[in-house]
Amino acid sequence: MIWFQRKQARQALHLAVVLVGVLAFALVSASTAFAQPQTPPSALNPKGINSAEIAALFNTVLIIAAVVFVIVEGLLVFSAFRFRKSKKDVSEPKQIHGNTRLEIAWTILPALIVVSLFVMALQTQQKLATKPGDAITVKVIGHQWWWEFQYPDYNITTATDLVIPAGETVNLEITSNDVIHSFWVPQLNGKTDAFPNHINTSWIKADQPGTFLGQCAELCGPSHANMRLVVIAKDRAGFDQWVKEQQAPPVEVTGDAAQGQQVFLTGACIGCHTINGTAANGQVGPNLTHFGSRTGIGGDTLPNTPGNLKRWLANPPGIKPGSIMPNLNLSSSDVDLLTAYLEALK
Ligand code: CUA
């Protein structure tokens, strides 16, 4: 009888050890998978100091949670096997109730853990709120379904590509033109909501030059998923060069592009779009003054190539459901001419 119980206990212990080992292995492999560089923009692959703080807090919380999980589940599984009903011994087990010392311990310990998590979160918040050094300011305006970027210091208005100097603090003044959006570039910072008639401030600082994908993170209509952006961090010289190019008036166009300009200026386009230095000064859609220099079309739904631009112009809502830009039923020759013009606007 005693031998039998010992054997059972040994088996239960073995099982518990194996289970704890499997759990620990799963958690460790999951955490190393998270830490690897990934192609999708991951908040756990930070490229700026804000995201690095957030990822560090996440990893600390994950480790604490993993330890708690393994201990609690390990004890639970062990107890279930060790004290399960025996086939031979059907008598009622010894009835016990309460253990004051144990209960005090398992109340105080979790309370201490929760308080330390709270303090760590406060510290991270404090760090995220502390803006280092001088900053350039960009006004970020959410629209259904694209992001507008205004640089008041440089008198530049653009869309989809947020070009910033790497290694420098960039102030963001975030607002919305219509519904609530949320500005999120996971590798650079957490989310900041974009409300109409209200400015939320945030800041980003990219460690190195690079390209970082962003995404609207608040359900805002049928093309919420197509409301993307790209942060392009350049070195100082590259950023200054970009500023110079964006401040320049649009290029003089010739040939097909010049014909395309006529189509643009005499058609519906100017009702919604601005091109500096022309009669087009619509305010509904993106400013297209240097459209040809951008990476994406239609809120970064498609990469900016002539072929994609033709698809877009032929039927915007077909590319981006719900698109405010309607299908203008342009002839295919007008689509070709407009494409030649817009792609020339470097
Ligand atoms: Cu804007 Cu979702």
Describe it for me?
- The protein is of the alpha+beta class.
- Helices cover 43% and strands 17% of the residues.
- It has eight helices and twelve strands.
- It has helices at 2-35, 49-82, 100-129, 236-247, 255-266, 306-314, 316-319, 332-344; strands at residues 135-143, 146-151, 156-159, 161-165, 169-176, 181-183, 192-194, 200-204, 210-215, 228-234, 296-297, 302-303.
- The strands form four sheets. The protein has a five-stranded mixed beta sheet. Strands 4-10-9 form a three-stranded mixed beta sheet. Strands 6-7 form a two-stranded antiparallel ribbon.
- Strand 2 (146-151) and strand 3 form a beta hairpin.
- Helix 2 (49-82) runs antiparallel to helix 3 (100-129) and helix 5 packs across helix 8 (332-344).
- It is elongated and about 95 Å long.
- The protein starts with a helix and ends with a helix.
- Dinuclear copper ion binds next to loops.
What is the fold's blueprint, element by element?
Elements: H1 2-35, H2 49-82, H3 100-129, E1 135-143, E2 146-151, E3 156-159, E4 161-165, E5 169-176, E6 181-183, E7 192-194, E8 200-204, E9 210-215, E10 228-234, H4 236-247, H5 255-266, E11 296-297, E12 302-303, H6 306-314, H7 316-319, H8 332-344
Parallel strand pairs: 1-5, 4-10
Antiparallel strand pairs: 1-2, 2-3, 5-8, 6-7, 9-10, 11-12
Helix pairs in contact: 1-2, 2-3, 5-8, 6-8
Bound molecules: dinuclear copper ion.
